[in-house]
Design goal:
Elements lengths: L6 E6 L15 E6 L2 E5 L6 H9 L8 E3 L5 H4 L2 H7 L5 E4 L7 E4 L2 E2 L10 H7 L3 E4 L3 E4 L2 E3 L15 E4 L5 E3 L8 E5 L2 E6 L6 H11 L5 E7 L7 H14 L3 E5 L4 H11 L11 E3 L2
Parallel strand pairs: 3-4, 4-5, 5-8, 14-15, 15-16
Antiparallel strand pairs: 1-2, 1-17, 2-3, 6-7, 6-11, 9-10, 10-13, 11-12, 13-14
Helix pairs in contact: 6-7
Length: about 280
């Protein structure tokens, strides 16, 4: 029997054009592929629950969840999700619970960038967490990469810091960033939450899980809102050279980079919002 084509639905995104749905600074995507129902990230708050209900997505039926990295805008909805879904394991990197902060003018910001679950919420979710390091193959066609290696030519656009055991501030190397890769008959579908290690790094990490396979679709927050014009151009040119069927810049990409991608890629660049639904390419 032929496999049913992948479908992916944007439950949470920074923007929406759909009546009845809510938007926030965050990302969550519901994916059906290779016989599995997957929740990729859970947004910043419990609006993922509201939007799923409006969109007719049954979160209770989700088989597994994958966490792109340990920041609040991708993990805040998991406590609410786990009250609805009592079975799905949550694949999260072993380094994801650093209490990280952005810095402004040499001082940490007031609000934490990292996961903001309460002690009670983390305890309640403890048995659900599957800590990753290297690649984890859920099926022969679904992989969570573990740590995304840095690709050559990557410039990091924003740094985060956390206190070590001695109380000293250390730069977060974002070792907890990972991507979800799904192999479909028409190519690889790669999902990246924020691409803090660079979107080209995320793309290359996904390709490495299935050597020799072409990439059909890249869905990624690209974290280019504070990138220089040269850095944006580098990413856009690299994307164009890949010849992907579809590039979907979401969440933290930044409007200038989205415009640059749309200008260069035309219809191959699709700007998704909360409530959008896609089937295959």
């Amino acid at each position: 029997m032929d496999r049913k084509a992948i479908s992916y639905k944007f439950l949470v995104e920074n923007k929406t054009e759909h009546t009845g749905l809510l938007a926030e600074h965050g990302l969550s995507i519901y994916i059906e592929a290779d016989g599995k129902k997957i929740l990729f990230d859970a947004g910043a708050t419990d609006i993922v629950i509201h939007n799923a209900e409006v969109m007719g997505v049954d979160l209770e039926a989700v088989d597994l969840a994958a966490v792109s990295h340990g920041h609040y805008d991708h993990t805040g909805g998991f406590p609410a999700f786990c009250k609805i879904n009592e079975k799905a394991p949550i694949y999260i990197h072993k380094d994801a619970f650093r209490d990280s902060y952005g810095f402004r003018e040499g001082k940490p910001e007031d609000e934490k960038s990292g996961i903001i679950w309460t002690d009670e919420e983390r305890a309640a979710l403890a048995d659900r967490l599957n800590f990753t390091d290297g690649p984890v193959y859920i099926t022969d066609n679904i992989c969570i990469t573990g740590t995304v290696p840095y690709a050559e030519g990557t410039n990091i656009t924003e740094n985060f810091y956390y206190k070590d055991d001695d109380g000293e501030w250390q730069k977060d190397d974002m070792s907890h960033e990972q991507v979800l890769v799904i192999r479909e008959p028409d190519g690889l579908y790669i999902f990246s939450g924020c691409s803090h290690r660079g979107v080209i790094s995320a793309l290359e990490a996904g390709k490495a899980m299935f050597p020799g396979e072409r990439v059909a679709v890249l869905v990624a927050g690209m974290h280019l809102y504070s990138a220089s014009e040269d850095d944006r151009k580098y990413v856009v040119d690299q994307m164009a050279a890949e010849g992907l069927d579809k590039v979907m810049p979401v969440h933290c990409t930044g409007i200038k980079a989205i415009c640059d991608l749309k200008t260069k890629l035309g219809d191959a660049c699709v700007v998704a919002v909360a409530g959008d639904v896609f089937h295959g390419c």
